[in-house]
Design brief:
The chain is of the alpha/beta class and 389 residues long. The protein has 2 domains: 237 residues, Aspartate Aminotransferase, domain 2 (3-Layer(aba) Sandwich); 120 residues, Aspartate Aminotransferase, domain 1. A 7-stranded mixed β-sheet has the order 1-9-8-7-4-2-3, sandwiched between helices. A 3-stranded antiparallel β-sheet has the order 12-13-14, with helices on one face. A hairpin with a 4-residue loop joins strand 5 and strand 6. Helix 8 packs across helix 9.
């Protein structure tokens, strides 16, 4: 295999990690100069900042006025667990999974909560389960975008308008990059560290009126840790959804989240953010179409993520390698690109099939994505020559 010429153009920002993700273009530490530091998060300026995050998020995302939005502990993981522990139990639940995080929620519901009436509707990496098999009389838990598989649900048409159960959606690598049908979703969770490039450890929990009704009418059979408690005396703790957080948030992270939201407003709100992610996906798709050694892990074009883009090496030589050598090979590619300073942290997720994963969310410039792709060709050719020697 002839090694392509070493590319001359480098991405200006080599951060293509799928979490924490690239900061917005032009970000510097000075963006945090106005952070409310050394003050209580319950002070007037502290609460104002927290409420501002909630309201700007509502506006950009188009969340209905009668949906509650809260800032909760422990990133998206904490928000999902809060929803599962607080809401599940009254009905049977359909668990949809096609990647690592969705599979984790299945494990939690079956083994930790110990629910009996659970249907595990799963699919291999690269595919979706049959979404039409979900039962509108049951609760359903799913990820909108499979962060570790690069597979997203194409729309919400499969969710019944007259459903009796709740839809609980982990949307952490989808929100701000994909158009979510709020009327189809009763619980939505995400973190600041994905599409908006914020800092980790804080989650967002969005509840429909139907979810609030469930919270106020259902008492879970298991003990509830303090950081999961959304009700008191059978009533919703409304303060959580006004920025009165359950535990102490980092006001530096809050300021950073606000900075990202203000940037999102300036570039055209949700439509502008989606367009940037889709432009990055289009650049990758054009390259994949002209490249014989790589393909999307997501088999169906309309299910391909525009944020966590997962790529498989389809070269027959590579496919003939044992799995451990395939994993070592993609890790070696990651190391070479890291040493060159052109791409950081792009190896596939540890539980996923061996491959590469490129973050293509809105904070990534399409010019940087386009500059990276020839480097992937160069690094793969080097790797192949090295292993065949």
């Amino acid at each position: 295999m002839t090694i392509p010429q070493r590319p001359d153009v480098r991405p200006q920002n080599p951060c293509f990690s799928s979490g924490p993700c690239a900061k917005r273009p032009g970000w510097t530490l000075s963006a945090l100069d106005d952070a409310v530091l050394g003050r209580s998060h319950r002070s007037a300026p502290g609460k104002a900042r927290l409420k501002d995050v909630i309201e700007r998020s509502r506006t950009i995302l188009g969340v209905p006025d009668n949906y509650r939005i809260g800032i909760v502990p422990a990133s998206d993981t904490g928000a999902v667990e809060m929803a599962l522990w607080s809401l599940l139990g009254p009905r049977g639940v359909d668990m949809l999974s096609w990647e690592s995080f969705g599979a984790g929620w299945v494990t939690d519901v079956i083994k930790q909560l110990g629910l009996d009436d659970v249907r595990d509707l799963s699919a291999d990496y690269g595919s979706l389960p049959d979404l039409t098999q979900t039962d509108p009389k049951r609760d359903v838990v799913f990820t909108w975008n499979g962060t570790t598989s690069g597979v997203r649900v194409p729309n919400g048409d499969w969710i019944a308008d007259d459903r009796e159960g709740l839809t609980i959606c982990d949307a952490t690598s989808a929100v701000f990059a994909m158009d979510l049908p709020w009327d189809k979703l009763d619980v939505v969770t995400y973190s600041w560290q994905k599409v908006m490039g914020g800092e980790a450890a804080h989650g967002m929990l969005i509840l429909s009126p139907r979810a609030v009704e469930r919270l106020q009418s259902h008492s879970p059979a298991w003990p509830m840790p303090k950081i999961f408690r959304l009700t008191s005396g059978g009533k919703l703790i409304e303060g959580i959804f006004r920025g009165e957080t359950i535990n102490t948030p980092s006001m530096l992270c809050v300021e950073d989240a606000l900075d990202g939201l203000i940037w999102g407003e300036k570039i055209g709100g949700l439509n502008g953010l989606i367009a940037r992610s889709e432009a990055n996906l289009a650049a990758i798709a054009d390259w994949v179409a002209d490249t014989d050694w790589v393909d999307f892990l997501a088999r169906t074009p309309e299910t391909r993520s525009c944020t966590s883009v997962c790529l498989s090496v389809v070269d027959p030589w590579f496919a003939a390698l044992p799995d451990d050598q395939q994993s070592a090979a993609t890790k070696r590619m990651e190391e070479v690109l890291d040493q060159e300073g052109v791409a950081y942290d792009i190896n596939g997720y540890r539980d996923a099939p061996p491959g590469l994963r490129l973050w293509a969310g809105a904070t990534v410039e399409t010019a940087d994505m386009a500059a990276l792709l020839p480097w992937l060709d160069w690094a793969y050719a080097q790797l192949k020559q090295e292993l065949q020697a």
